[in-house]
Design goal:
The complex is a heterodimer of chains A (283) and B (585). Chain A has 283 residues and is of the alpha+beta class. Chain A has two domains: 87 residues; 123 residues, Sandwich (Immunoglobulin-like), CATH 2.60.40.420. In chain A, strand 6 and strand 7 form a beta hairpin. In chain A, helix 1 packs antiparallel against helix 2, helix 1 packs parallel to helix 3 and helix 2 packs antiparallel against helix 3. Chain B is mainly alpha-helical. The longest helix of chain B is centred in the first third of the chain and has 35 residues. Classes of the chains: A alpha+beta (283), B mainly alpha (585). Chains A and B meet through helix 2 and helix 3 of A and helix 3, helix 7, helix 9, helix 10 and helix 11 of B.
């Protein structure tokens, strides 16, 4: 019996999680990691179902058998042998579940460098009350990997398809959690610590996500979106971001210059206005 | 003349200068008798339960429709922050402590708590802890969430006195629990009846002992954690300050240890009560007394060691997660053994589905549903998908409502005759039971469906484009039905205090020593504590009486020789004090 259960579990573990998507699992998985997570989700969902049904059936059976019985005066007790056998059976079941869980966890973990020939892209993800900031590596690599014109975006993360993505998730204020179910695991954003998560998105699409770590009054609004695009679109996106940042910087500089000039003019007028009454008083 | 004879001094009754008795309520609140302290714990826990239910329903009403603007997010967060500690620390654990306080000394044949003043002090610390948290509603309560995780609860993000009141309130309450634990452990270790070795200690008392050791450990840890948080907030401490050598993760570890211990304490307390009720209402002895007792210990140890199962998204090496997962999965072994032995106990018995039994069965069903879900969530990739979503919320609430509410009420209905000398109303109990069970399931299942769709816990609103309007509306309706069912039991208890059917010392035919003494028991509990020779001392006494009555049957008139004097059989108990007053099952 334990062997049959182990074989059944193994068969389920071998099936892709996407086979169950839309039935009792959440969004369709879009990465191999998410696929493994969904498979685990389904297997252990069935385990829960079996446990609940088995206990209910046993309980109802015992109640039904007992409800019409005469006053029993015997003192039957579970012998040590029965207890030991049940305990060992449960122990074996737990061991099987543990092994299955470890295998699924290894599949659902980060991608290794050997899984793709494409150079991975490392993106800094910072949670802050109550939005996400994504900081991309600059297209032209510099010595430290980032430059003064590092492109960034808020709310929406754009990544290329079929490319290993490494997210360095952190927080600049309180704890948050980055979670896009279709891409894989949830990642805590802890202030002062980098929490790394890597994955490869296999389909061009838009995926919704949200924080699930309570972070204050705006917590319910802390959502995010991941747009998976082609490599060309990704390059264009970065160029647009850099261009946009340059434009914004210039606009800010111009505004600052105008403001400075206006400030100087206003100060001169004030000085002039301040001097006039004195002259008047002198009269 | 004959001198008058000096007679012997006669006794006199002097009625002058004797102070009048104090009002009953003053006697109650100043009494260190374990029964009075237990009653105060139970009454206060039910009062706080009413507050928690109000908060729950208010939060659910806010979530009844998408993008509801009925309540500002800050108000929702205040209710959320108070609800968590009220439901767990001010209701579920104190209700268990109240029952332990009242019943354990009676079960083990003790005349009271070994440290009665400490026991009494523990209640007042708990009460003032609860009051401290709620007094903050007069100015501004905490908005830092269920467990006040820093940095959100640090001074930088939660200035003012709001979080301070929360810390002081929770800290006082926990110090009270730790003191209770010390007093109960001392009692069970030092005051057991003659012959009551550990293998004969009733399972509810076993549960009380295991819960006490658990609270002693995790309660102390959380008190120290709260002190560190206070130091961070007001004395330039850096325990949890990121960037200054501190680590917010440290708080998460310590609070998770506490939550794991508190959670399993509620479950074990309910399991202890269920383990007393099932044999009584199926007229069977325990199928495996020692196995259940050992399983309580194993469950507490494994559940606390699995504290990291709630932290799988944190930046921690995977090896630690595997350890937590193994501990959590291993907890299924003692839990499974307990359930197996319960089923073995009632199987083939003469089942009486009275109110305590009904609540016990409901508690098993809902607890198993919740604990099986927790088992699945202990698997790392599953938790990555459902942690802190409606799925996790549903499992936790199923286990805690199953254990804390249905299990607690099973115990309340079972021992109410002992507390008050009257039975609780059976009809109201059945109405309450079905409303609680049905309402809880109507609240939990839709929330789990919402969780599968990605709805997090603790949010003050959800969006219309998520398509979760119907399930949230159902969950709100379920919370209202659940709350009304809960209030029916409270009303039933209040009505039965004066108007319930009066009963004798042993209305259910129990097998443990609390049913040996009158209901309610005298101050000193027992005039005479019998020797204990098995795990079911009252069943032994009944057997002895039955054997004696058989032996005393008059012989037929044809007998030619006089009947010899009956000789006590070897090993038979001496007739116990007051035994003729006891009903014989």
């Amino acid at each position: 019996m334990p062997l049959a259960a182990a074989l059944a579990l193994g068969a389920f573990a071998a099936m892709p999680g996407s086979a169950f998507a839309g039935v009792i699992a959440p969004d369709s998985p879009a990465t191999p990691q998410a696929d493994a997570s969904f498979t685990a989700y389904v297997i252990f969902g069935l385990v829960v179902l079996v446990i609940v049904v088995a206990v209910l059936a046993a309980l109802l059976g015992a109640l039904r058998r007992g409800s019409g019985a005469a006053e029993p005066d015997h003192r039957t007790r579970g012998t040590a042998g029965i207890q030991r056998r049940v305990g060992m059976g449960l122990g074996v079941a737990v061991l099987v579940l543990f092994v299955v869980a470890v295998v699924l966890t290894e599949n659902a973990r980060d991608v290794s460098a050997s899984e793709s020939s494409v150079e991975p892209i490392e993106i800094q993800v910072d949670g802050q009350q109550w939005l996400w900031r994504y900081e991309y590596p600059e297209a032209t690599d510099t010595s430290d990997g980032y430059s003064a014109e590092t492109p960034f975006s808020f709310y929406e993360l754009v990544i290329p398809v079929d490319t290993p993505i490494i997210l360095d998730v952190s927080s600049v204020d309180v704890m948050h959690r980055w979670w896009v179910p279709a891409l894989g695991r949830a990642v805590d954003a802890v202030p002062g610590e980098d929490n790394e998560f890597s994955f490869i998105a296999e389909d061009e699409d838009v995926y919704e996500g949200r924080s699930t770590e309570f972070s204050g009054p705006g917590f319910a609004t802390m959502r995010t979106q991941v747009r998976v695009v082609s490599a060309e679109e990704y390059a264009t996106f970065l160029e647009d971001r850099i261009a946009g940042i340059d434009e914004a910087r210039e606009a800010v500089s111009e505004e600052a210059g105008v403001a400075e000039a206006e400030g100087e003019a206003a100060a001169t007028e004030e000085e002039a206005a301040g001097a006039a009454p004195e002259e008047g008083q002198g009269e | 003349m004959t001198p008058p004879v000096q007679g012997a001094a006669r006794p006199e009754i002097v009625s002058e200068d004797i102070p009048r008795g104090r009002p009953a309520w003053i006697e109650l609140v100043t009494s260190a008798d374990h029964k009075d302290v237990g009653r105060m714990y139970i009454a206060t826990s039910l009062f706080f339960a009413a507050i928690a239910l109000t908060e729950l329903v208010m939060m659910r009403i806010q979530l009844a429709v998408p993008e509801n603007s009925l309540m500002r997010p800050e108000i929702f967060d205040r209710l959320l922050s108070a609800y968590g500690v009220t439901a767990l620390l001010f209701f579920a654990i104190p209700l268990a402590i109240g029952l332990f306080s009242y019943v354990v000394p009676l079960q083990i044949g003790a005349r009271g708590f070994a440290l009665p003043r400490l026991h009494h002090l523990s209640y007042w610390l708990y009460l003032f802890g609860g009051i401290s948290v709620y007094l903050s509603f007069l100015y501004r309560p905490s908005e830092a969430g269920t467990i006040a995780l820093p940095p959100l609860s640090d001074d930088a993000f939660s200035s003012g006195r709001a979080v301070d009141a929360w810390i002081v309130g929770v800290g006082l309450c926990l110090v009270g629990f730790v003191i209770f634990a010390v007093a109960l452990i001392a009692t069970v270790r030092s005051s057991r009846a003659p012959g009551m070795v550990w293998r004969r200690v009733p399972l509810f008392s076993w549960a009380g002992t295991v819960v006490s050791y658990t609270l002693l450990v995790v309660g102390s840890i959380m008190v120290a954690t709260l002190v560190m948080l206070m130091v961070d907030r007001h004395f330039d401490g850096v325990f949890f300050e990121p960037g200054e050598g501190g680590a917010p993760l440290l708080y998460e570890h310590l609070s998770s240890i506490f939550l794991a211990g508190a959670y399993i304490s509620v479950v074990i307390a309910a399991f202890g009560a269920i383990s007393e009720i099932l044999p009584t209402f199926s007229r069977q002895p325990h199928f495996g007394h020692s196995t259940i007792a050992a399983s309580f210990v194993a469950l507490a140890v494994l559940a606390v060691l699995a504290w990291m199962q709630n932290m799988y998204a944190a930046p921690i090496p995977i090896g630690f997660f595997y350890f937590a997962m193994l501990m959590a999965l291993a907890a299924a072994i003692p839990a499974g053994l307990i359930i197996f032995n319960w089923i073995g106990t009632i199987s083939g018995g003469s089942i009486r589905l009275r109110a305590p039994m009904l609540f016990a069965i409901g508690a098993i069903v809902l607890s198993v549903y919740g604990l099986a879900g927790e088992l699945a969530q202990s698997v790392i990739p599953v938790a990555w998908q459902v942690a802190d979503t409606g799925v996790a919320w549903g499992d936790t609430h199923a286990a805690l409502i199953g254990a804390g509410v249905l299990g607690g009420f099973a115990g309340l209905h079972y021992w109410f005759p002992k507390l008050n000398g009257t039975l609780m109303g059976e009809s109201l109990a059945r109405i309450s039971f079905w409303m609680i069970l049905g309402g809880a399931l109507m609240m939990i299942v839709p929330m789990q469906i919402a969780g599968v769709e990605g709805m997090p816990v603790d949010v003050s609103k959800f969006y219309a484009d998520e398509g979760l309007g119907l399930v949230n509306a159902l969950a709100t309706l379920g919370s209202v039905i659940f709350s009304i069912g809960f209030l029916v039991t409270m009303a039933n208890a209040a009505a039965s205090l004066r108007g319930g059917t009066r009963t004798g010392p042993d209305p259910w035919g129990g097998s443990t020593l609390e049913w040996f003494t009158p209901s309610p028991p005298p101050v000193h509990n027992f005039d005479l504590v019998p020797d204990v020779r098995s795990g079911e001392p009252l069943a032994d006494i009944r057997d002895a009486i039955r054997r004696r009555n058989v032996r005393w049957t008059p012989t037929p008139a044809v007998a030619t020789e006089p009947e010899p004097e009956p000789v006590a059989a070897v090993g038979e108990d001496e007739p116990a004090q007051g035994e003729t007053d006891r009903p014989v099952a």
